[in-house]
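Residues and backbone
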Amino acid sequence: MLRNHLKIAWRNLMKYKFISFINLFGLTVGLTCCLLILIYILNELSYDKYNKNADQVYRVTRTFYNGNGDATLNLSAVAPPFGYYFPTDFPEIKKMTRLLNTGNTSLRYKDKLINEHDVYFADENLFDVFTVNVLKGNPKTALNDPFSVMLTEETAKKYFGDEDPINKVIRANNQFDVKVTGIYKAFPSNAHIHPNILVSFNTLKDSSVYGEEGLRTNWGNNSFFTYLLLPKNYNIESMKARFPAFLDKHMANDYGGMQPSKLTKLDLQKLTDIHLYSHTDDEAEPNGDIKRVYIFSAIALFILLIACINYMNLSTARSALRAKEIGIRKVVGARKKELIAQFLSESVLITWSAIIIAFVLLYVTLPWLNKISAQTLSINILMKWKVLVPLFLSPFIIGIISGIYPALFMSSFQPVKTLKGLFKTGGSNISFRKVLVVTQFAISIILIIATMVVFQQMRYVQKASLGYDKEHILTLPYYSQLNDQYESFRTSLMQNSNIKDVGCSSRIPTGRLLDDMGASAPGSDSMVPVKAEIRFVAADYDFIPTYGIHMVAGRNFSRDYGTDTSNFVLNEAAIKAIGWKSSQEAVGKNFKYGSISGHVIGVMKDFHFESLHQEIKPLILIMPGQFLYTNISIKISSQNISSALATIKDTWQKYLPQFPYQYTFLDENFSKLYESEQRQQTIFSVFACIAIFIACLGLFGLSAFAISQRVKEIGVRKVLGADVTTIVALLSKDFLQLVIMAAIIACPVAWYAMHSWLQDFAYRINIKWWVFLLAALAALLIALLTVSFQAIKAALANPAKSLRTE
């Protein structure tokens, strides 16, 4: 029976080649898109699950609160003393490991001098908590000794080539030597952190590096990623409940007698949740977002739904062609369930063919997805039984979903009417078909609107006034070896007329503002703590002119005033947060920040130090000395960039020959802030085009069939004097009405979806009314072109021929 169904199905597909092709092509494109998105989603959901103990590992996070109880800072790393006290206060912890990113680290081996970014201090417990494939060395002892280091295969190859790296010595920051004790395979791409170099954590205990006392008492340096391996099925809520008492016990002195648990909080974050659910202020690497997974899942379902709707529409549309076949089958004894099985076998056969072709197209299109998503996605992620079984079943499910309505509809034909030619494809099926067409175009219009809104927001963030000049600013790392000779270094640079300014700072715009030391402002009788969080940046005399930041009151730091090292420059947001009435009033006020007491000497106009995702924060510039500087910013002329770069390189090699010369332009950093949104815009655009293409493909087939049924009517109208324009308008009207109805439904849905998406930006566009009108007109024009092609063809046909043809 099955063989007979498949044979008849094949004959019918070959008989109606045009409609069969449209169904097959639409489903193939839809399934290819679904498979691409499926690979992306499975990869996003797989992060950190490769670890053997993934379900038992948690990361410790820390949140800070102001005097009003509002969260002001959420960190994924904590201070080193937490790791010191955790094992004794929480004996249920099986293992604990800590990682500390060293920032820019200069490594030298013989004549190779390279600036590394993914260098981490790590302890010997790392291999008990994370699953790491150690290729050389003993994982139990490789990180025990101070000044030992482990490298990934690629890093070892970079420094040592074909030499055996074990026991080789590398010079770090021209400060100390480390000996290679092991080689490990790089963390997989679906890990939330990728350390390429692991330095023994015990190295930090050396007083020349960090100091054991600092590891035990420095509660302010929240830079240590701390992971806990807990017992299986452990109730983490019981540990969380004991955190406040733990904080009050160990941190009372650090908070000057105040209750620490009221101002800071610890939390536990499941390892496998970090990539999609963690959005703290200091992630080790940029994370994904579960909302993005939901969005792309919806897009995949939308595109597949449009392809399925095509099948339903075209199958019911051609029902008149098969009416007599169905009537004869019923007369000779075919039961309704046998007819349903026949029609479903046709849809399943088309779906199977589509998914086979889709897998072939997947190999071709996957490199494109990797390029725009900046990931290394592989088809191998589909090669698991948990994925392959549903994929194997999907042609049956999709085939049944797309074919069930046509099967039920056609199997219900009455044989007497069909054999007498009294059957008409009117009634409820037409109404349902219209609903399907409206659904198709509503989805397409939603995607068009989404693409336009994302494009406008990205254009807004690129063109928005940031309050500083990001163009032609080059940034370099600042090394402490430059402290004693910085003025000479700066003077050498400024001798080139193409270099306009040189400034130093602890952070640069496009970074995050995370540092706060607590502020006090004048009260009625004495200095009163400011409840608002005011973040600080350590900056020198030239930071403000280098970035072209506008002063609204007072002045910038000046070399002419020796006391400026204990004075302050605030932004307008800080003035408001403190409660002062105006910027002019603030100038000259006594102020205390951390342990520094001085005066407010100037007020900067607010500027976007961080991305437009964040609101402008209260900010203070301080000059506590060079020990806090980490960045050099150089403003160069646009006239002769090559000359400026040559001077900077020569000067660097003169003053800092022991460190690699490596620069970045600030506008490159700015672009990186919105990389994920830019990729989202590209993907939206591509899939919106695919969705509307598939919808138009179905509309093309549907209009072709509908017009073929009205050939005699068109011929009669032409004989009676109707011109081409009138006939085209008549044939197109019904379809265009459906598109207008789809636009009416799509606009409020799209507005709600994109309004929610824009909430991720503190500074965003307002969605304009014309966006909806333009999207609707675009869909209308595309539909008109699709239908008009068939309509014009029919209108130009010879009426005599159409009236003669039976």
Q: What stands out?
A: The chain is about 50% helix and 15% strand. The mean pLDDT is 85.
